[in-house]
UniProtKB/TrEMBL annotation:
<comment type="similarity">
    <text>Belongs to the N(4)/N(6)-methyltransferase family. N(4) subfamily.</text>
</comment>
<keyword id="KW-0238">DNA-binding</keyword>
<dbReference type="GO" id="GO:0009307">
    <property type="term" value="P:DNA restriction-modification system"/>
</dbReference>
<dbReference type="InterPro" id="IPR017985">
    <property type="entry name" value="MeTrfase_CN4_CS"/>
</dbReference>
<keyword id="KW-0949">S-adenosyl-L-methionine</keyword>
<dbReference type="GO" id="GO:0015667">
    <property type="term" value="F:site-specific DNA-methyltransferase (cytosine-N4-specific) activity"/>
</dbReference>
<dbReference type="InterPro" id="IPR029063">
    <property type="entry name" value="SAM-dependent_MTases_sf"/>
</dbReference>
<dbReference type="Pfam" id="PF01555">
    <property type="entry name" value="N6_N4_Mtase"/>
</dbReference>
<dbReference type="InterPro" id="IPR002941">
    <property type="entry name" value="DNA_methylase_N4/N6"/>
</dbReference>
<keyword id="KW-0489">Methyltransferase</keyword>
<keyword id="KW-0680">Restriction system</keyword>
<feature type="domain" description="DNA methylase N-4/N-6">
    <location>
        <begin position="25"/>
        <end position="143"/>
    </location>
</feature>
<dbReference type="GO" id="GO:0003677">
    <property type="term" value="F:DNA binding"/>
</dbReference>
<protein>
    <recommendedName>
        <fullName>site-specific DNA-methyltransferase (cytosine-N(4)-specific)</fullName>
        <ecNumber>2.1.1.113</ecNumber>
    </recommendedName>
</protein>
<dbReference type="GO" id="GO:0008170">
    <property type="term" value="F:N-methyltransferase activity"/>
</dbReference>
<dbReference type="GO" id="GO:0032259">
    <property type="term" value="P:methylation"/>
</dbReference>
<keyword id="KW-0808">Transferase</keyword>
Amino acid sequence: MSLPFNQVVLGDCVEVMRTWPADSIDLVVTSPPYWGLRDYGSETVRVWGGSPECRHEWNNYVFPKRGHPGDKSTLVGTQIAPLSKSIGGKTTNTCVKCGAWRGSLGLEPHPQLFIDHLVEICREIKRVLKPTGTFFLNLGDTYGTHT
């Protein structure tokens, strides 16, 4: 398989990396969405976890209109992030049969599920990264404070 050379590759990172051979990438740079702060639209929705053979039956979870636990910046403490309130009213889904979750990274109903999804992504990065490769991961919460 011939991989792109000196190119930015766009797509669902897990799905794209699964098509690449192990130990084949020199550099990965990523800044995942902050939990509970942004909705990137329906194009970013995917099914996480569960069973690929399951005929999913989805239940709905609606984020409260009052905001989300992600409203508080980890950098500022108690300052409210007004833009995160736009997440209120958004719906995510969990399969009642296999536990799969359908939604966008960063819009998980609780932080542990968000961490689980980041770990899934990082495992795939580790698989494709060369032993001499470099991985930059930017995690923060400055968007919520407009800084």
